[in-house]
Specification:
The chain is of the alpha/beta class. The protein has ten helices and 17 strands. Strands 3, 4, 5, 8, 9, 16 and 17 form a seven-stranded mixed β-sheet that branches. Strands 12-11-10-13-14-15 form a six-stranded parallel β-sheet, sandwiched between helices. The structure holds zinc ion (ZN).
Length: about 350
């Protein structure tokens, strides 16, 4: 099969479009002929590498993908060749105490496709059937692939961990990242009021098109926590979605007493200072998570494929041009998700 892969860490130039052996489905697995893959920031972090990351080379990046079942391993009964599917990239072992308790994203032997295992920048992938969600006829593979990781992550954080309720106020720090745009849509679906902090008018107009109620341009209001406090009648917001990290001090100021600060990432870097007085003095909860459970995936993808939640799509590149696609993501030029077309 064809794949875009790399043999060494580095910039986009290390990506090669090459031949790689087509995998075989094991018992309980399906072979999926991928039609679309979607890019995530983790693809770039893995390509750049970090101390302690051990990959089996060549490595194939990519967590998100959608396509149709092209083959089945032994012992599979409920699925058919030709079924259209989207992939849940969050792989639990299915056997440990966390997996058996339905908390598979806490698995003791947890893997993410494209990170610790070869991923979706390729024509074929073999996966256990529990990792697949059936797509309705006609649902766009690119929209499905683009939605999977970010909607799964945002749903687990906002709904499962934070218990988001109708009528709450949700502040999203960032207007255009995949988890941020998914968080805006999920919060609106639950009947929350949504405030978004964005880098510029163009990114904020995307947030507005997704239903954001109040937009704050951080290029004009550096201390945006004041604008948020004013907008909530000096009460503060119930929930902040902060995947920047370095903005925690402002996010903690913007929260009401007893508020929840959610984080699933750190696009601003991993280390920063926080003032502990805000945590105890304001009774704040800081809730971290990564990805979501099998149940979360089924719930949120049911809504995505019923067109109740929309994923904004940026540009599509052919699989062989994945380096150009990653460069666009690295430069932050995208508005919505970048996808790869796998013809
Ligand atoms: Zn497990």
């Amino acid at each position: 099969m064809k794949a875009t892969l790399f043999h060494t860490h580095g910039g986009p130039e290390v990506l090669e479009y090459a031949d790689f052996p087509t995998p075989e489905p094991k018992p309980g697995e399906a072979l999926i002929r991928l039609r679309a893959a979607a890019l995530n920031r983790v693809d770039i972090w893995v390509r750049n590498g970090w101390p302690g990351l051990k990959l089996e080379y060549p490595h194939i990046p990519g967590a998100d993908g959608a396509g149709e079942i092209a083959g089945l391993g032994d012992g599979v009964t409920d699925w058919n060749v030709g079924d259209r599917v989207v992939i849940n990239s969050n792989l639990g072992c299915g056997r440990c105490d966390f997996c058996l308790a339905g908390q598979d994203n806490l698995c003791r032997n947890w893997h993410l496709l494209g990170e610790t295992l070869r991923g979706t920048y390729c024509e074929y992938i073999a996966l256990p059937l529990r990792q697949l969600f059936k797509l309705p006829a006609g649902f766009d593979y690119h929209a499905a692939a683009a939605a999977a990781l970010v909607y799964h992550t945002a749903w687990h954080s906002l709904v499962t961990r934070a218990g988001l309720k109708a009528g709450e106020t949700v502040l999203v720090v960032g207007a255009s990242g995949g988890v941020n745009t998914a968080s805006i849509q999920i919060a609106k679906y639950f009947g929350a009021q949504v405030i978004v902090i964005g880098a510029n008018a163009e990114k904020l107009s995307l947030a507005e098109s997704l239903g954001a109620d109040l937009l704050v341009d951080r290029s004009k209001e550096e201390d945006w926590s004041k604008a948020v406090f004013k907008a909530t009648d000096r009460r503060g917001v119930d929930i902040v979605v902060d995947n920047v990290g370095t903005t925690f001090p402002l996010s903690m100021r913007a929260l009401r007493k007893g508020g929840r600060l959610l984080t699933v990432g750190n696009t601003g870097g991993p280390k920063f200072e926080i003032d502990n007085r805000f945590i105890f003095g304001k009774h704040l909860s800081i809730i971290g998570s990564t990805m979501g459970t099998l149940k979360d995936f089924a719930e949120v993808m049911s809504l995505v494929t019923a067109n109740r939640l929309r994923v904004p799509l940026d540009r599509t590149f052919p699989l062989k041009d994945a380096a150009a696609a990653q460069s666009r993501l690295e430069k932050g030029e995208q508005l919505g998700k970048i996808t790869l077309d796998i013809p």
